[in-house]
Design brief:
The protein is α/β, with parallel strands linked by helices. It is built from 19 helices and 49 strands. An eight-stranded parallel beta barrel has the order 4-5-6-13-14-15-16-17, surrounded by four helices. A six-stranded antiparallel beta sheet has the order 18-28-29-35-31-32. Strands 20-19-24-25-27-26 form a six-stranded mixed beta sheet. Helix 7 links the parallel strand 14 and strand 15. Helix 1 runs parallel beside helix 2, helix 6 crosses helix 11 and helix 15 runs parallel beside helix 16. It is globular.
Amino acid sequence: MKKFIISAGYLLVCSFIFAQQVSWPQPAIEAYPAARWWWMGSAVNKDNLTYNLEEYVRAGIKTLEITPIYGVKGNERNEIDFLSPRWMEMLAHTQAEAKRLGMQIDMNTGTGWPFGGPEVTLEDAATRLLFREYTLNAGETVKDKIEVEDEKQKNIAVLTRVMAFGPEDERLDITNKVDKGGNLQWNAPSDSWKVIALFNGKTLQKVKRAAPGGEGYVMDHLSQKAVKNYLGKFDKAFQSNKTSYPHTFFNDSYEVYRADWTPDFLEQFAKRRGYKLEAYLPEFLSAERSDTTARIVSDYRETMGELLIENFTRQWTAWANRHGSLTRNQAHGSPGNLIDIYAAVDIPECEGFGISDFGIKGLRKDTLTRPNDSDFSMLKYASSAAHIAGKPFTSSETFTWLTEHFRTSLSQCKPDLDLLFLSGVNHIYFHGTTYSPKEAEWPGWKFYASVDMSPTNSIWRDAPAFFEYITRCQSFLQMGKPDNDFLVYLPLYDIWYEQGGRMLMFDIHKMEQRAPKFIESIHEINAAGYDIDYISDNFLRQTKVVNGKLHTPGGISYQAIIIPAAKRMPVDVLEHLIDLTKQGAQVVFMEQYPETIPGFAQLEKNQKKMDELVKQLPQVNSFGITAVHPFGKGKVITGHEYEITLEATGVKYECMKAVSGLQCIRRSNDTGYHYFVSCLKPSDVKAWIPLAVKARSVAIFDPMTGEIGKAKVKQEEGDTYVYMDVKSGESVILQTYSEADINIPEWKYPEKQALAVSLDNGWSLKFVESIPSANIRIPVNQLKSWTDIELDQLKTNMGTGCYSISFTLPDIKADDWILDLGDVRESARVRLNGEEIGTLWAVPFTRKVGKLLKTGENTLEVEVTNLPANRISSYDKAEIEWRKFKDINFADIHYKNTNYSHWEPMPSGLLGPVKLIPVDYR
C-alpha cells in the first residue's frame, strides 16, 4: 500500500512529485497588487465608485486603500466631508462592491498626512519644547514675566518647569517660585546663575493635503490621551452609521515636524531613565557635544521612541484589532527605533522613493528622474521587523517618483520592483491611483505624486501582464518562511549618541547621514553572498537558542548574529549575547567589542558591569585578523573584513550573489526552499551556480510567462549546482526539493545559432487606438519612432500602433525560435499567425515563438503602446487647462509648478531591430 503525505499543497508519492503538483502557488488576495486610492475632495458617487472598482479588478488590482485628499477646483458642491454620514455611505457602497468583485478595502486613518483634523484641540495637538534662558547675578531676579518670546506661542505655551543652575553645580527646581502672574519670586544667591524656563509649546502643524472635513491640527503622537481622543471620532462614525470597519487601517511615513515634546515628557523621562532631565538642562540644551550631553540626548531620544511606540503605534494597532482590522504602517521618519515601531503593527511598510540605476542592458533611461533614496539597506528595516516578529506580510509604497509625470514605462518599473522583492517585500501597494469619474476629461483627476497606475494612463492597456508578474512573484514570496542567514544588530545607541541636535528623525532621505557605517556593513554582507535581517535590542533580549540556531520571537531561525562595530550596548543585552553563545550560538563581533554603555544614569556602576562582561569574552590582540573562539557550546568570531569573517561561521554563502552578481532572496517551505532571483546588472549570467542549500531536484518558474520546467542539477563535493541562464533585467524563481525527484518536463536552455533572421523592413503601421485620431495605414520601410514620421498627429498622440509584417521562414534547422523585438517604446502585445504570444512589457523584449511558426508565409503583428508624455506636452503647448486641483495642484518631480510644453517628443513605437533567432536546446 502506497503512503501518501499531503503537505502545503504537494503530494509526495515514493519521493516523486508529479507535474500536476509542481505549479504556481494559489495566490491569496494579498498576492495581487494593491494601490493607494486617492479620493480628491472625497467627491465620489456610487456609479463611478463601481466603475473604478471594476476597472481595477479587471486589470488585476485586488486591494485599494482609500486616502482622501484635497479636491478639484470648481467641484466643491460634490465634495463630501470625511466621516460624515454621506462619506460613510460611500465607504459602505465601496466595501459592498469590493466584496462582490473579490476585492478588499483599506483606508487611511485620516486624510492627507499626518493624522489630525478638526477634532484635534490645541491641548491634543502636536507639542514642541520651548525654553528661555536668563543669566542672573547676586540678588537679581527675572524682571519680566516668564513667558516665551515667540508671539505666536504666548497665548498657547504652558510653563512646566523653571530651573536655576549655580556656579558650584547647584541645580534647583524653582518652579513653585513663579506666581500666578508669571513673575519669578526668587533672587540669585550669588553671581553667575542661569535660569532656564521650559514650556510646552505647539508646532501648529496642520494636516498636509487634507481633504474636506479633515483640516485641522496634527495630533500629539506621543500622548496616550491625544491618540485615544483622535481614534474616538472613528468609532463614533463607524458605529453611528453602522458601517463595517475596513480590512486594514493605514498610516503614512512619520512627518510630524518639530514635535519633540509632550506635556508629561519630564515625568515619563524620569520614570524610564532614572533621573530628572530638568536637572540637566544646561547639558541637554548645550550646542557643544560633550560626552555628558551626548548621553543625555541619547536618553531623550530613547524616551521619545518609547512614547511613540507605546502611546501611538501600539494603541492604534490594538484599537484596530479590536474592531477586526489590521494596521499597516510606515515607521520611517519616526524619531524612534524603526525596527520596534515596524514590528508593533500587523503589516510593516517600507517605501521606494526614486529610481535605481542598475545598468540594465537595453533599458531606456530618462533624463527627468530622481535617484532612489531607498536602497537595499533602507528597505530591509520593514521586512526585518516582519521576519523577527513573525508577521506574514511586508508591504511597500511602490514607485513614488521614479520619473516625471507621464514618462514612466512598465519596463522602468521592473528593476525597482525586483529590488523590493529582494529586500523582503511581498505585498506591493502602488503609489498610487486616483478616483476619477468616467466622464472626466482626459487626463482625469490626478494626484501629483507619480507613478500613476490608473485607467487613463496609456500604460494601463498592458498593465495586466505587469500585474500578473507581481501576482506570480508574490504567490511565492508569501509562501513558507524567511530563510535569511544572519541577524545584524542595529547599533542604535551609537547613532543616537553620535548624531547632533536633539530630535532625530529616521527619514529615508537622510539615512546615509544617520548611519553611514551601518549601511556600508549591510552592503558588504550582501556582496559577500549572505542575506540578513536587522534586530533591535528589545528583540535580541527575547531571542533564544534552539539546536544551535538563534530563534527570534517570530519563530524564525538564524545561523548567527553579527555585531557591526557597535561601541555602545546595554549591559543586559551584552550579558544575553554571552549567554546565547554559551548555549550554542555563534556571535560575530566586527572590529571591536562593545566598550561602553548608553545613557547617563548610574554611569559608573553600569560601566563597571560592562567592563566585567567584556573581560568574559575571548581576549583578542587584533580584530584585523579573523579568529574563531570556542565559547561555551557556541563560538565567538572576531574580525574586520566581512567576507573572510563570515566565512568562518561555516554558513554557506550564495554564489549567485557573491560570484555571479545575481541578486536573490531565499525562503523555506515544506519540500525544501524557494528563491526569487533577479539579474540587476548589465551582463547576462549563464553558468552552473552552487546553491547554499542541498537539493535533489530544482524547478524553474518564469514569472513573466508562467512557464515551469525541471532545472539541470548536479552534485559536486556535497554542493548542489543548478544551471542558470538569466539575461540582464530578467528574473526567475527556483524551487528546490530536498528529497523528491520532480517528474516534470525539462527546462529548456536555448543556445543561439550564429545567424538570425532580420525583420527590419517591409512593415506596415496602423493605429488601433490613438488620441488625437490617426486613422491611417502607412508602410514602414525602416523601423523608427513614429514621432519621426511626417504626420503632425503622430508627434503628439497617445495610443497603440499595430505593426504587421509577412515573411517566409528560411530553411534553418532549429529546436526553437526566439522573437527579439529590440527597442520597444514602451510595451507590446504580440500575435503570430493570429495566435497570441503574450504581452512584452520589460527588457529584454523577447519570447519563444517556434511552435507558432509555419514553413510557408507567416504574419507577425506587434501592437505597441507609447506613453502619454507627448499628448500631455501638446496640452501645455496649446494652453489647455487640465491642472485644476487644489492645494499643491499638480507639482513636478521637484515639487515645482512647471509645465511640459518644452518637452521634445518622446520616441514611440517599435524601434527594433526585430530578429528571429534560431536556437537549439542543451
